[in-house]
Structure formats: C-alpha cells, structure tokens
Amino acid sequence: MKNKLISIVLPLHNEEGNINELYQRLIRTLNTEKKYDFEIIFVNDGSIDSSLKLVKDLSLRDNRVKYISLSRNFGHQAALTAGLTYAKGDAIIMIDADLQHPPELITELITCWEDGYQVVYTVRDETKDISFFKKITANIFYRLINLVSQVKIDPNSSDFRLIDSKICDIIRQNPERERFYRGLIPWIGFRQKSIRFCADSRFSGKTSYTLSKMLRFAISGILSFSFVPLLVIIGLSIFLAIASIIYILFVFYQKFISGQAIPGQASVLIAILIIGSVQLLAISITAIYSYKTYHEAKRRPIYIVDETKGFNDEPKS
C-alpha cells in the first residue's frame, strides 16, 4: 500500500549559511517517519546570495528535494503561497529556513495530524536573543489585532504549522492577493491545535524582516481581518461634530448672553489641530483600504516563477 505523502515547504531569502544545517536536521527527523513519503520544497524568494545554488546541489543528491525559484523577492507570504500551490502532499508543513523553527518538532505535528487535527500550528513560548523592542511591539500587535478582529490569533503564533490537504485546497481556491496566513488559517476553521515551543536564535545570517517590513506586515494583517478602524473613524467624526456644536453654542452664549467673551485663540488652534489630525488619520486609513481594494482588483499574480525542478505536472490550482 502506497505511503501518504507529506510536503515540507521552506521559503528562503538569503539563507546560504543555514541551508546545509537545516537539510541535515530535517533529514534526521524525516528518517524517523518510516510510514510516510516526503517532498522537500524550497521556495527561493529572490535570494541574491548562493542559496539557490546550494538548493540545486541538494536536489542533485536527493530526489525528494525540489525547488521553486521566484523572479524576485515577493515576500514571505507570497513564497509560502507558491509552495502551497505546488505541494502535492496529504499534509503540508510550512517551516522557515533560519532554524528558529526546530525541524525536530515535525514529528509532533504529524502525530497531532494523525489524531485528527486538520491544522496544527506552533506558538512561541520564548525566542532566544529577541530584542526588547521586538518583544514589546509583537505583544502590542497581537493585543491590537485580537481587539479589533473577529478572528482570534494566539499571541506569538508563527508560520511554522501543518495543514491537511483539505485546508490547502481551500487556500488555493482563495482569490485574495495579499495573504496573512496567521489570520487566514484560523479564519478557515476546522479542528485546530497549538503546540508551544522555544524558538532558537538564527543559526546564521541576519533576518530580512526590517522594521518597515514588520510594520507593513502588521498593518496588512489588521486591515485584512477587521473594519473596526473605519468604525473608529466614524466614532471620532461623530464625537468631534458633537463637540464642535457644543463649542459653538458655548461661544454664542459667551458673546451674546453672558457678555463675557474670552479671547479664544489658543483653544481655536487646539481644536483645529485636533480636527486636522483626525482628518489626516481618517484619510490615511481609508486610503489604505482603497489601495488594498485597488490591488485586489488588478489581479496581478501573487508571485512569478523563474524556474522549478522536481515537479512533473502542473501545480494544483
């Protein structure tokens, strides 16, 4: 009887110092799972170092190693999308290539899948060598997104997860261009289970997630799963309108009834600054929503493939 296939999807961007160590640890773990076949799919997300060459060398030695090389850097979520599109497994495991996601945990992910869970995701209890600033901003992000979104996301959840092929098929059918998998997969539902782990520091190299990329990622996640920011704008607008009417009535009272009009240059300037700031905020938020709509309407491809190896037929769609 043919073994079930498990696909391992590994997006990578400039990870030349991690690939060989990652492969060795991955193989040691996969060799303990005798009742499954595996395909290891590296997704080269526009690396400018020797990452792709190292992956090509591995594919020559191990026919389980396949790769997809994108035409440029499209981003982590787009690279994951490419891997999920080409994956043929009965279950698909997403794992980063920086070795902060321990490959040894794959065995536990598979065990939970065998117990009937269609999604098994991981949550970081701790991350070694993480900066205080990143820890605080991550905490703020998860608190904020869970406050404004109907989809609840476990704080410190990661993109290291196993999904059943049924979930993967649903993701493939999703036409959304901007992907935020930490929100999208909880939104899909089905039986889900979390596993907690301690994330190691990077084995080699530096993270490509700059502050600006993290900020864009956070804003995209919040706006993709909530319209609460628009409700906040409406609430502020109503509040300022009522406050303005009350202030106007107060000025008229001071001027024509009490006869004790007080020069109000400072208060007028403050009111103008407050209203102007709220207007700018409202314009910015609505502009982002409008851009996201425009971006989806253009229907440009999420990624563009330059070359592949190891895939005998067309990817699933």
Question: Which features characterize this protein?
Answer:
alpha/beta; Spore Coat Polysaccharide Biosynthesis Protein SpsA, Chain A; eight-stranded mixed beta sheet; 10 helices; 8 strands; 18% strand
Summarize the helices and strands and which ones pair or pack.
Layout: E1 4-12, H1 19-30, E2 36-44, H2 51-61, E3 65-70, H3 76-86, E4 91-94, H4 106-114, E5 119-127, H5 132-148, E6 157-164, H6 165-173, H7 181-188, E7 192-199, H8 211-224, H9 228-257, H10 265-298, E8 305-309
Parallel strand pairs: 1-2, 1-4, 2-3, 5-7
Antiparallel strand pairs: 3-8, 4-6, 5-6
Helix pairs in contact: 9-10
- Radius of gyration, rounded? 25 Å
**Which fold name is given in CATH as the topology?**
Spore Coat Polysaccharide Biosynthesis Protein SpsA, Chain A
* Overall mean confidence score, pLDDT: 81
- Assembly type: single chain
Shape: elongated
The proportion of strand residues reads: 15-25%
Class computed from helices, strands and strand pairing: alpha/beta
Terminal-residue CA separation = 27 Å
Give the CATH superfamily: Spore Coat Polysaccharide Biosynthesis Protein SpsA, Chain A
Q: Which architecture would the CATH scheme give at its second level?
A: Alpha-Beta Complex
Question: Spans of 5+ residues with little confidence (pLDDT < 50)?
Answer: none
Task: Spell out the helices and strands N to C.
Answer: EHEHEHEHEHEHHEHHHE
Biggest sheet strand order reads 7-5-6-4-1-2-3-8
Q: Sheet with the most strands?
A: 8 strands, mixed
The total count of helices amounts to 10
Give the helix proportion (percent range): 40-55%
